[in-house]
């Protein structure tokens, strides 16, 4: 990952970009409770978990928002199933839903199908609920990234997001974030997620246009910001 940076940011400010994330299939309720406690201690924006952990008690961390994945990680679910999953998550207390598109539809250039998929989930996540669209950017070429981002804009999404973090093609890159930001403009957020392991990575992605970061190693990244020079 390219790490050339042009911004100055402190750990407290960086923490507010972070969806503190635990999506491992072997995660337990105790692991999620520890995630919430750590997220509250670090001052992150939200925690991001699997929907099976809902409803989730955040009474001890009232400033934390709750993000939940949908159609994860493959995106190979019927749109009606994704919409039902998202609707249940909202009913159970989610503030934000991170949905995975059908990556195969994007690779085939069927952006109308991608848009329809997002529209279905958008209907299940009405405002003020936030809908993020995971495009798996490392598995797409530039034209496909642009097409998917345009579909997300047309469908009324709130964010486009680089990656699940589970695809073998890889996670977030500066190039993908720059392209996503250029395509969606200022109206949508851009979430960088997948493979962000250092403070330099995090700052470079924000500099490229990311307005949210999906991190699992949040404590390590924030501690690195204290240590790394130039921030």
TrEMBL record:
Catalyzed reactions: 2-deoxy-D-ribose 5-phosphate = D-glyceraldehyde 3-phosphate + acetaldehyde
Residues forming the catalytic site: 98, 161, 191
SUPFAM superfamilies according to UniProt: Aldolase
GO term, biological process aspect, one: deoxyribonucleotide catabolic process
CDD domains recorded: DeoC (cd00959)
Family that this chain belongs to: Belongs to the DeoC/FbaB aldolase family. DeoC type 1 subfamily.
Function per UniProt: Catalyzes a reversible aldol reaction between acetaldehyde and D-glyceraldehyde 3-phosphate to generate 2-deoxy-D-ribose 5-phosphate.
Protein name per its UniProtKB record: Deoxyribose-phosphate aldolase
Organism: Cellulomonas humilata
The organism's taxonomic lineage, starting at the top: Bacteria, Bacillati, Actinomycetota, Actinomycetes, Micrococcales
